[in-house]
Amino acid sequence: MRKTLAALRRLAAAAALLLPIALQAAETSGGGLTLGPADGNNVLVVHASNSVQVFRGVLEDFSRLNPAIRLEYTELSTQDLYAQTVARAWQSPAARIGPDIVISSAMDLQTKLVNDGYAQAHVSPETRALPGWANWRDEVFSIGTDPIVMVYNTDRLDAARAPRTRRELLSLLQAPDQPLAGGISTYDVEGSGIGYLAATQDTRLDSMAGALLAALGRNGVTVHESTELALDRLERGEITLAYNLLESYTRHRIDRGAPLAIVYPQDYTLMLSRSAIIPKQAPRADLGRLFLDYLLSPRGQEMVAQQSGMRPVSASVIAAAGVRPMGLGVGLLVYLDPLKKKHFLDLWKAAIQPAAAGPGAPPAAGGPGPGGPID
């Protein structure tokens, strides 16, 4: 019992330290949008990792349908969304504070919030219509999916040579002419919730994951903490290929004329869920539920697909193409165990930064720093 109490006190202290950091991120990120009447009594607060740029159309459609509601949208990193929720619960457990709905692409962290008692249940015709993989315990829900893909600069890599599988990517990394040396990027799994989730799923599904990581390290891979930053570098021609990016953001760049191409790995393409929870402490959980039901409604799903580039939940399984959604549930919690996470991160760093201690090691560039892109 003493050990349990001590552990809880340590967690509370850590959460208290995390909250100011998370709040600072909210203030400096600059990602926000306010819609609706300035003096309305009905205020819906949404915190999400979705970029305002790609989610704006969805928010504006909801606002048109509900003109009496003031919608306050704040863009935060997946890590900050999680840290804030935990910290609020420890600092003011009885208070109705914070957002009314939290939407995150780090579906493992969302699942952990549910598992640890930080979310409340919601049952409606819309939630009941979801497939089993998209609804866990009536507390965390997929609102849309986003394939995790490879993206390359078409000016720097010929389409005939672009890898179509992870095995082909490994072969390209091992090619004698080293076409990707110093020109490849992947998520920083320490700084990105999406990156950690994608990398751990690769380890679970692919027996070659270790060899691929080692080859990335030998080719001087750089790391990024957001898809947007990686796409910036790809557009400028600073890198040739990025491994594990979100399709929706890439589609927006391609539609604007960026010289980019998407590869859906033919061995398997992970389909990440943008998942939503209604926090236990939501001041207006009724409005959070209203917004969630809108997102899951036929109109909301159409807007999600048209405006944000995500795929509707009903169209997220493409078996013939090897595209499959990751299901919400306890299976996502395995690599959040502290010992497993430390072991994975140690192996990842050893593989991907083999020359870190030696002269001439390439810098691990691409992180956003304070106020940078977050998804």
Automatic annotation (TrEMBL):
Domain of life: Bacteria
PANTHER family given in the database record: PHOSPHOGLYCERATE TRANSPORT REGULATORY PROTEIN PGTC, THIAMINE-BINDING PERIPLASMIC PROTEIN-RELATED
One Pfam family from the record: SBP_bac_11
Entry-linked SUPFAM superfamilies: Periplasmic binding protein-like II
Protein name per Swiss-Prot or TrEMBL: ABC transporter substrate-binding protein
Range of residues in the leader sequence: 1-25
Membrane-spanning segments: none
Record's compositionally biased regions (Gly residues): 366-375
Alphabetical keyword list: Signal
S-adenosyl-L-methionine keyword on record: no
Residues covered by region (Disordered): 356-375
